[in-house]
Specification:
Number of domains: 6
Strand order of the largest sheet: 5-6-3-2-1-4-7
Radius of gyration: 31 Å
CATH superfamily of the largest domain: P-loop containing nucleotide triphosphate hydrolases
CATH class of the largest domain: Alpha Beta
CATH topology of the largest domain: Rossmann fold
Helix content: 25-40%
Structural class: alpha/beta
CATH architecture of the largest domain: 3-Layer(aba) Sandwich
Largest sheet: 7 strands, mixed
Strand content: 15-25%
């Protein structure tokens, strides 16, 4: 590995100037990844990783300064200056040498300066904003290394005790650790010491402002509340429903200054939040109507008052902001684009207004609301240098008329600092738990610890303490196994969320901090940004929504640009100046969903429409992915649901109770001789059934269909005990919940149901749903005049509900009103355990919401995506967890239960589909030998599986054509073709080979060629897709431009008659990426990525790769040799 990196460094010295920074950056990223993958320090941005490795390997301080300078240069969009390049290469070589413990080779030494550059006396340019890394600290000062600007000073001394009298940073002593990143804001310099007015810990970890505010309780704001608040069930009560309505009403009143009617808000809000209304346990229609009318009257009065002093045309609704300086993100209810007005709306009760007595801050607002508003103000202050004198910040309490309904508040610096202190403590705690384990903090989760204010009044004793106890008590009533499981999974989730925020390896996966840490060139390279967009149209999707549909022209994004966006993705759209780089931190962000993506245009549907189309304006626009904490929060909530569920179901999932079978049950009919036995076993399983569906075995089109039909033929066993209950159980209907991990798989389920005319309701976002199935979405099923009773009966009578697992986790209130006899989860091998156990243990009042479940998947295909490295080493796996086959949280529940069943010697609860109708036997043979030796797949056989010859009838041009006609599996060795000005994720020789093969195949298939069915191309890197497309264009064959070229991950679940696979790699280090999803079964490597790639082909599989690189992997060598034995090894050159 080190040899390859030293070669790259030598290449940098001779590379074209425009390529030097890219190669340097890539080399540094690889070195950091390799150096940290076996440690606990595998997260944080690139500067954090560099610092950790410099510390780990005791690199000299002067060299560390040079290495950080090299890192900054490699990050820049501008070419590295000729005077700097040799010194930067020296610094990189020293770094690689230290990380890999290998001397710099003599061939490179002679090309590098013998000494580092003598630095000039460069002062820090910007004392308002210093990003730095902690080296050491004492009771008075912190020694830090500056990383966001050039400085000749190796270390800065930060005095965090002698500050202005109202600033107390003493709490930092218990948070600081080596390598921690800090933002020092608004610093002054006194006697060579830096004194900041504000210190932000780990600023790349963005915290949602509402999450911070929600932790400011009357009994205090202990940092562990940040964790506790994510455990409880997402509340859905009459106050939440009214709050959602009041928010919509404010939007509609702003958008319709002259023609507003409350009926429009009732109608749109009811349709949009249909599930919340239907599942709200204490909803009273009469009360709601009265309260809603009062809210609307108050909002209209308040809005009219506000815009006596401010310009209504500049009012903007729910803009989003990202503030890296404060480590915050949030969405403001209402503001003006000139930043003069900032309003946060609250629809609930305010005890201070009700009783007309002042709070400890001397006003009538609720503290948590004040905190929320002040942090929004802080974001505007630091992102846009807002002058405090110009800003008016107001709390709108829409339950009350004026004057109490609108409270202007002062920007209280003391409370802002207290809120940032809480943020710092909460973030530092998250890092600590990720590194040391959640189990070490579990004993602290008690009401006594969280009640830092020692509140003991009647309100606390009667209301707050019982609420806290209800949430916390279950955590201390767990068995040894349950505690080990819960704490291990919590550590895993917390670390996974941490990595998703701050990154583990740049360019691999998406992290929120990529928004500002990733160089623009790399964002382009990974397809994670559109730039230079211009608006061509703004329209309203409905009469009451404001301008919410934005169409943008997409100019040329670069020759190799390939967008990493899909329909339905959450995005930020924002304006920037043409002569500047786009930066989310400097802009008002419009959050929305991608509605349409085309080569020359994209359409974004904004979450919040705007009354004035002129607000959405700018010289040009950029589009980037919008981050969200929803995934991590719902996983924590899911785990908490699991540990508070009924004991029997917990014991079942933890392998402490055997599943049950009712052997007396028989099928209602015969479906298909290849499936009947498995469908019967699944029916007889009373708790769970695990259906293994290897490639091409028809698990969705056949098995899933038959399972659904058989369940629909059943009468439910459980009857309601409530009088006059009109639920489907009493109506004698079975109720099924069908789930999958991805929207694409849910589309396939919908396709199967629609083809067989089985009715269903889909829950989810219309932009993530294939338009063919959108008429089944809940919001589309309901008409304009829907009533609450009709929503409830629609859901009640629906026998089949379809959704993704993430949607279901966020809509778990559905279980309040609907019981399911059966849940079938497709793609179960791709779903992490914490994302599924909450659904499987959900409750409907005093009983389970789900009777039994079937998990469908194939653990030998691609697993769940996990961003953290070396997950199994987070904590030493305890023996109790080993006993339930939990060796790594990166494995799915599906895989763990398979191991449980096999260890117990049971066969009643696992079924494997053996008949595959995809691959010709000549293709299936290798996969059968290497990956499915146990399963021994057989051909159905379908017609194409019986064919003895390929139907290529055109005359051969040469020996390669002859080989194409003669062999089902072919390997073509590619030639070395590394080029300094091209990324190593591209292989130009293989791109030419693939394009030529496509030309030949198109010629041979002639009239039978179908771009959607005939041929597909699989590659490991997205960059190679663009290179192959470029080669295809040269052929000038329009039909070839429509074929699918994609990564293995995107191809899972697809098939083509002929699959071409370009391995692309030419370096040893790339083999790790290619084989990252390998596990061992009885000593045999199961490479899941290779398995998926070669099992997509129906009639022919053609592989091309750099043979010398591939042969360094045992399985790839065996594959090449296998093809050689079959005479399928063909030279192209």
């Amino acid at each position: 590995m080190a040899h390859e990196l030293f070669t790259r460094i030598a290449d940098i010295l001779t590379a074209p100037s425009e390529a030097q920074a890219r190669i340097m950056h890539e080399t540094l990223v690889i070195a950091c990844y390799e150096g940290l993958k076996e440690t606990k320090h595998g997260f944080g941005n690139l500067s954090s990783q560099v610092e950790a490795l410099c510390r780990l390997h005791h690199i000299a301080p002067k060299d560390v300064v040079a290495i950080h300078k090299m890192r900054r240069h490699s990050n820049s969009a501008a070419p590295i200056l000729p005077d700097d390049i040799a010194y930067d290469c020296r610094a990189l070589a020293l770094f690689v040498s230290a990380v890999f413990q290998e001397a710099i080779p003599d061939t490179l030494v002679g090309k590098l300066p013998t000494h580092g550059r003598i630095t000039e006396n460069i002062q820090i340019a910007n004392y308002r904003y210093i990003r730095c890394i902690v080296r050491e600290w004492d009771e008075q000062t912190i020694l830090v290394a500056v990383i966001n600007q050039d400085s000749s000073e190796e270390l800065l001394t930060v005095d965090y005790m002698n500050t202005a009298e109202y600033v107390d940073f003493s709490y930092l002593r218990s948070l600081l650790r080596e390598g921690m990143q800090l933002n020092l804001l608004d610093c002054t310099v006194t006697r060579k010491k830096v004194v900041p007015r504000l210190i932000v810990v780990e600023p790349d970890y963005l915290v949602d402002i509402s999450s911070i505010a929600n932790c400011f309780e009357s009994y205090g704001h202990h940092p562990l509340l940040f964790t506790v608040k994510r455990m409880g069930e997402r509340p859905n009560n009459k106050h939440i429903v009214l709050g959602n309505f009041a928010g919509s009403a404010l939007d509609d009143i702003i958008n319709h200054p002259t023609d507003y009617t409350i009926k429009d808000t009732f109608r749109s809000n009811f349709r949009e939040k249909a599930l919340d209304f239907a599942t709200c346990p204490d909803f009273n229609a009469v009360e709601f109507k009265q309260a809603a009318e009062q809210q609307v009257a108050n909002i209209q009065e308040i809005v009219n008052e506000l815009f006596q002093s401010f310009e209504r045309e500049k009012a903007i609704l729910e803009p989003s902001f990202v503030c890296e300086r404060l480590g915050l993100q949030g969405r403001i209810d209402l503001m003006t684009t000139d930043l003069k007005l900032l309003v946060e709306q609250k629809s609930g009760k305010n005890i201070f207004i009700e009783r007309q007595y002042k709070n400890p801050h001397g006003s009538l607002h609720v503290e948590k609301h004040y905190v929320q508003l002040l942090l929004y103000y802080g974001i505007l202050q630091y992102n846009f240098q807002l002058n405090p004198k110009d800003a008016h910040i107001e709390l709108m309490y829409s339950k009350y008329p004026l004057p109490n309904g609108l409270l202007e508040v002062e920007p209280l610096q003391k409370l802002i600092r207290e809120a940032i202190k809480f943020r710092n403590q909460a973030v530092a705690t998250e890092y600590w738990m990720a590194e040391n384990g959640f189990h070490r903090l579990l004993p602290l989760l008690t009401p006594q610890v969280l009640n830092v204010e020692k509140q003991n009044d009647v309100f606390y004793q009667r209301y707050l303490l019982p609420q806290l106890t209800e949430v916390l008590a279950p955590l201390h009533q767990l068995s040894e196994l349950e505690r080990a499981y819960f704490t291990r999974m919590m550590t895993f989730i917390i670390k996974e969320q941490l990595v998703s925020k701050v990154s583990a390896q740049e360019g691999v996966g998406n992290s929120n901090a990529d928004l500002w840490n990733m160089p623009l060139a790399e964002k382009k390279d990974t397809g994670n940004i559109y730039t230079g967009l211009t608006i061509t149209d703004k329209s309203c999707s409905s009469s009451f929504n404001g301008y919410d549909t934005i169409t943008l022209n997409v100019p040329q994004q670069g020759i190799d640009f390939l967008p990493n966006f899909r329909r339905g993705d959450m995005v930020y759209l924002y304006a920037y100046k043409k002569n500047e780089e786009p930066d989310v931190r400097k802009s008002i962000l419009f959050k929305g969903s991608l509605q349409e993506i085309h080569t020359s245009s994209i359409v974004v549907h904004l979450n919040d429409g705007q009354q004035n189309p002129n607000l959405i304006t700018g010289e040009c626009f950029a589009l980037e992915h919008a981050g969200s904490d929803i995934g991590g929060t719902s996983a924590i909530r899911s785990l908490y649901t699991f540990i508070t569920s009924d004991v029997e179901r917990r014991q079942l999932l933890l392998g402490q109770r055997a599943p049950r079978a009712d052997k007396s049950l028989v099928l209602s009919r015969s479906y298909h001789p290849d499936y009947d036995e498995i469908i019967l076993k699944a029916k007889q399983a009373q708790d769970y059934f695990l259906l293994i569906g290897p490639p091409g075995t028809g698990k969705t089109s056949q098995a899933l269909q038959y399972l659904v039909r058989e369940q629909l033929a059943e009468k439910p066993k459980v009857q309601s005990t409530k009088p006059n209950d009109q639920s489907p159980m009493v109506n004698g209907q079975s109720s099924i919940l069908l789930l999958a991990y991805t929207n694409r798989a849910v589309d396939e389920i919908c396709n199967m149901l629609s083809e067989h005319e089985i009715d269903y309701i889909r829950i989810g976002n219309e932009y993530s749903c294939d338009p063919k199935y959108s008429d089944h979405l809940l919001q589309e099923v309901l008409d304009e005049n829907t009533t609450l009773n009709s929503i409830k009966s629609t859901l009640s009578e629906a026998q089949i509900i379809v959704a993704t697992t993430s949607t279901m986790n966020s809509r778990s209130a559905l279980f309040n009103i609907k019981h399911f006899d059966l849940v079938i989860i497709d793609e179960a091998s791709q779903i992490l355990e914490p994302n599924i156990v909450g659904i499987l243990t959900a409750r409907q009042e005093e009983r389970r919401a789900i009777d039994r479940f079937i998990l469908v998947g194939d653990h030998k295909q691609l697993p769940a995506v996990v961003q953290q490295q070396g997950e199994a080493d987070v904590e030493n796996t305890s023996s109790v967890l080993e006993n339930i086959h939990l060796s790594s949280c990166a494995n799915s529940l599906f895989e763990r239960l398979i191991l449980t069943e096999r260890a117990a010697g049971r066969t009643d609860f696992i079924g494997t589909l053996h008949k595959q109708g995809r691959m010709h036997p000549d293709i299936a043979d290798f996969a059968n030998r290497k990956f499915y030796a146990k399963e021994q797949l057989e051909c159905v056989p379908l017609a194409h599986q019986l064919e003895t010859e390929l139907s290529y009838n055109e005359e051969s041009e040469d020996a390669l054509d002859n080989a194409l006609k003669a062999h089902r599996m072919i390997f073509i060795p590619s030639m070395p073709c590394k080029q300094l000005n091209i990324s190593e994720k591209v292989n130009t020789d293989e791109a030419r080979i693939i394009a030529d093969l496509l030309r030949r195949l198109y010629r041979q298939m002639s009239k039978d060629f179908d771009p959607q069915k005939s041929v597909g191309v699989i590659v490991p890197y997205r960059n190679q897709i663009a290179m192959i497309r470029k080669e295809i264009e040269r052929l000038e064959i329009p039909a070839l431009e429509d074929i699918s070229i994609d990564t293995v991950e995107r191809y899972q679940g697809s098939q083509r008659d002929v699959i071409l696979y370009s391995f692309t790699i030419q370096s040893r280090y790339q083999l790790d990426f290619l084989t990252a999803n390998t596990f061992y079964e009885e000593g045999q490597p199961i490479d899941r990525k290779l398995n998926v790639a070669i099992t997509r082909a129906r009639k022919q599989l053609i592989l091309t790769g750099n043979e010398s690189t591939l042969r360094q992997n045992q399985l790839f060598a065996e594959l090449i040799d296998y093809i050689k034995e079959k005479d399928g090894y063909v030279r192209f050159h």
